[in-house]
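Explain this one:

_____
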Amino acid sequence: MKYILLLVFALSLQLGMAQDKTSKDLDSILQSMPKDEGLITSYFEDDKLYFEFPEDVLEKDLLMVTRLKQLPANYSAYRNAGSKTSEQMIHFVKVGKSIDLVQVLTTNVADEEDPISLSVAQNNLNPILASFPIKSEEGDAIVIEVSSFFNADSPSFNIIPDGLKSEYKIGKADDKRSRINSVKSFPQNTEITHTLTFPTDKPPRGNSTNTFTFQINHSIIALPEDKMQVRYEDSRVGWFGIRKYDYSSDALKSDEVRLIRRWRLEPKDEKAYARGQLTEPKKPIVYYLDPATPKKWRKYFIQGIEDWNSAFKKAGFKNAVVAKMAPTEQENPDFSPEDVRFSTVRYVASTTRNAVGPSVSDPRTGEIIESDIIWYHNHLRSYRNRYLLETGAANPKARTLDTPEEEIGEMMRRVISHEVGHALGLPHNMKASSAYPVDSLRSGSFTQKMGIAATIMDYARYNYIAQPGDKNIRFVRQLGPYDDYAIEWGYRYFPNSSAEQEQKILRNFVDKKSTDPLYMFGGRGNDPDAQTEDIGDNAIKASTYGLSNLKIVAKNLNSWTTPQGQNFDDLEELYGEMLGVYRRYIYHVVSNVGGVHETLLHKGQQGIPYKATGKSKQKEALDFINDNIWTPQYWLVDEALVSKFAESGKLESLISINKRVLKRLTDAKRLNRMWDTSSTLPGNGLSPQELLEILAEDIIYSRTSPDQVERELQKHMLHQLIQMKGDEDLALELKGHSLALQKDLLSHFKTRISSTENELKAHYSYMVQALEEALDTGK
């Protein structure tokens, strides 16, 4: 027994010495590595990364945000530098001799005093994202190594969506070509940047390396100890939100609630605020401009950011939004754009034509913590081109590729305002552009005061309605009355009121305004009043004005874009974008066919939530389409223009546009919706049978001598009708109508064969043969 005790003692001593040696070895390693103190103290060198944190960080509410910092060329049209791939609340949890990194689920909630909270916890077990052995634990300091976690493609990072992994046949991350790049620690956050490289068997065009390399940034952020009071969403006011299911609700189910995402704004002087005086906030929303921002553009960026102060005055705040240049290292050596304490506007030297306004918010309350707006340099080119194409006919300043600096600056200012709007919590509001009468947009006094849409959060960039000769027109968007209304609703401060009391006050506020077109909110869907890139309350009238202007631009495009001695590359680029403008004007009208107007209402408000577009309006839209699509638009392919840069004509472009429009009009979803809404919704909508008959008349019966573009369109319509028989999604009644129409067309084409010659005879013979095969064999 004595020997056993001695043996145990010896083993214990050896183990203790080994642990002590390991601890000393680690201490030696850490002392030799660069150290960065902050929320989580980091030690990083040669791809080795250690975290050290006190025990009070354990189970502290943290947010981990993952963003793409750099990504491969031609990777995805919907992901770019700055795109967020994941945002999750996390805890570091001590389990024995390990630290677990746990994702904390925040969607399902219950009052902690409610017994059902036990069941919510039991049925929503938080997933463990990673587990790290404790390397050292001295006093309240815990050390773990996290190198392998950030050198791998953790599913929680969501770097590459499953769809893109499948499309490009992307393999696992190659650890030999992946590494941690940098780590920075700040008082409220720690930033980790690392590189991941993946092999791909089916890369996009231009990638001959069969390799995708990404640089990723992770932010670990301390969430506020003092939680901001939540504000509940009202669906009639557009706002980014957080969805939760409240199991302590009085409803006989888990009640879905949505909290809006907003900054914490509280008045410095609450008594003055209560008296209705404008008051500065305790903590304004401050944006720092990237030092890389070209000097000539800086004033426009600052104006675009601070333009929102006019809206915040409606909520009782002055100087709520502040823009300033980032401090130099001498002015503030601790300043960093990665530091969560600072919101920034980044200027990125990139060929990407975009700007984005992401923000980070507390998933518990919706409080926006910080925001980084990203402006990509080449975005200027997109705006310059569209400015010329959409306003050049009525706006002499736009008739050049050397757009005056103040004009470019004004566009940039409004783009930044739009992105700041997102960062304040506002989503797109595509309904707002239909608030103004079309002819008001030809008025100088109206547009200078009201802009061209009721909000800057719509995609209503330019005034393409104003005609040559209209005076003092505003051509570029600006903030509008909806912006004032939305900011007041989201940021009005109510001291000593609960979230539920606020909700009642704000509901009454919205009840009084939301049915006024100036204050309506709407997404896209099937509502012809909620489209992207349109302006005015009548798409048919607006597009008629737009096409009239575009024809003037087409005649002058060469002279406006190509100086003597220059090649025609810019002309070719502008021509391609001009076809895109033409398509947009047409699609705005197409949306009226089978459209359903949506008005967001609560019970007690006057109006009808859903109403079919009236039959007369749909027929007017189809007349416009007949005049401006089915009748070939040869002005778009004028040989004097196209021959400058194309070795063959552009008839195929006309044919392609025609096919796309016809496919949209005869899509099974649209036809089924018309079949349903024409009989179940108010508004006396057009039936799908009537639509097909009108299309047959306009495309086939009325064209006695169709030219080559019209013949291609007729052939495409025939194939659309034939394919309806096999379309499982199409209502059976509509298949029957398509069959009857095919029989009528067969008789028509047989009659035409005997009265025509040459290519027309061949065309009609083809149509007869195709119909006979379809009708005889059921194909």
Q: What stands out?
A: The first helix runs from residue 2 to 31.
